[in-house]
């Protein structure tokens, strides 16, 4: 690239042209910086507002989560038994018909009915008494006496009891 001759610089119209280019560049650079700065300020303000909203939402979420955890803990302490479900596990082994199986289940169900509407913790504390009451009772159906043993007891809103026939005697 070649430097323009001295003759060009001495002419006033060329001098005005180059001065206009320099002044235009400075003014356009100033306009660019102003527009960019204003838009950048708007973006920063929007980001700050969004961060404030996000922080506020996070505080609300944490407060709600603490409330929900406290309520869940309180509700777990106050859970009550709502129904009783009894299942005879080894009825097929003794070839017990479905009517006798149903009667045994209903009789065991009657033994556990007093636990309905009790909280789970107190029902769990009396599980040994319930187990002994079920196992010590003899169930008589169709001239046969059945003795059962409690296989498993599950405590939740539904009290699930699994029993097995321990002994079966025919009555004459």
Summed up, what is this model?
This protein has 5 helices and 4 strands.
Topology:
Blueprint: H1 6-10, H2 12-77, E1 83-88, H3 98-112, H4 120-125, H5 127-136, E2 138-141, E3 144-154, E4 158-170
Parallel strand pairs: 1-4
Antiparallel strand pairs: 2-3, 3-4
Strand count, sense and barrel status of the largest sheet are: 4 strands, mixed
Q: How does the overall form come out from the CA principal axes?
A: rod-shaped
Structural class: alpha+beta
| Count of alpha/pi helices | 5
Q: Segments where pLDDT lies below 50 for 5+ residues?
A: none
Domain Sporulation membrane protein YtrI C-terminal: 82-166
InterPro entries: YtrI, YtrI_C
Protein name: Sporulation membrane protein YtrI C-terminal domain-containing protein
Organism: Priestia megaterium (strain ATCC 14581 / DSM 32 / CCUG 1817 / JCM 2506 / NBRC 15308 / NCIMB 9376 / NCTC 10342 / NRRL B-14308 / VKM B-512 / Ford 19) (Bacillus megaterium)
Walkthrough of the structure:
It contains five helices and four strands, in the order ααβαααβββ. The protein is rod-shaped, with a radius of gyration of 44 Å. It has two domains: 6-74; 83-170, no CATH class. It has helices spanning 6-10, 12-77, 98-112, 120-125, 127-136, and strands at residues 83-88, 138-141, 144-154, 158-170. The chain is of the alpha+beta class. The longest helix is centred in the first third of the chain and has 66 residues, at 12-77. The mean pLDDT is 89. It has a four-stranded mixed beta sheet. 59% of the residues lie in helices and 20% in strands. It holds the Pfam family YtrI_sporulation. Residues 82-166 form the Sporulation membrane protein YtrI C-terminal domain. This is Sporulation membrane protein YtrI C-terminal domain-containing protein.
């Amino acid at each position: 690239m070649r430097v323009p001759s001295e003759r060009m610089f001495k002419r006033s119209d060329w001098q005005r042209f180059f001065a206009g280019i320099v002044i235009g560049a400075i003014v356009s650079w100033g306009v660019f910086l102003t527009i960019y700065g204003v838009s950048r300020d708007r973006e920063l303000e929007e980001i700050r507002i969004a961060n404030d909203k996000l922080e506020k939402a996070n505080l609300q979420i944490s407060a709600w989560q603490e409330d929900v955890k406290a309520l869940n803990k309180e509700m777990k302490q106050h859970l009550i038994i709502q129904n009783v479900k009894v299942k005879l596990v080894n009825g097929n082994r003794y070839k017990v018909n479905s009517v006798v199986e149903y009667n045994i289940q209903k009789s065991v169900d009657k033994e556990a009915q007093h636990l309905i509407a009790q909280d789970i913790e107190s029902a769990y504390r009396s599980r040994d008494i319930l187990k002994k009451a079920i196992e010590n009772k003899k169930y008589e159906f169709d001239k046969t006496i059945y003795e059962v043993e409690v296989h498993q007891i599950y405590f939740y809103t539904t009290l699930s009891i699994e029993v097995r026939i321990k002994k079966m005697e025919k009555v004459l």
